[in-house]
Amino acid sequence: MANINFKLRALLLDIENQLSDSNITDLCFLLGDDVPRRVLDACKKDQSMREVWETLFSCRKITPDNVTYLIERFEQINRMDLAARLRQFCHIPFSSTVSTVPTRTPSSPARATTTNELFYQRNPPNSS
């Protein structure tokens, strides 16, 4: 785990070097609910994300096994390249845009997709 943690931290340092001042300002705005104001103000002043990354680790918004939180924020500031790098790093396949609704296969029975269909399948109308 320590090696994975080191690799993620190294990746975050490299990502930080690719962020423009505008990217940092936008990212700080998006992180406002999860990172203390003093940390964000220092980040904007120094243009260093290190304390921000540390705060996100501390509050478990990011972990070596889950960087979805950061991926979503990078997508919001239109840094798809950085989001893609984080996706490649993560060992657990995921996507913030993929639906988790099961698909129907020919061998599986049809599943109700709406509340009305659920009730209909459970209590079909009388056919008198």
From TrEMBL:
Name the UniProt key words of this record, in alphabetical order: Apoptosis
Q: Name one Pfam family in it.
A: DED
Give the GO biological process terms.
apoptotic process; regulation of apoptotic process
Bias-annotated ranges (Low complexity): 97-109
Q: Which InterPro entries match?
A: DEATH-like_dom_sf, DED_dom
Residue ranges occupied by any DED domain in the UniProt entry: 7-88
Descriptive protein name:
DED domain-containing protein
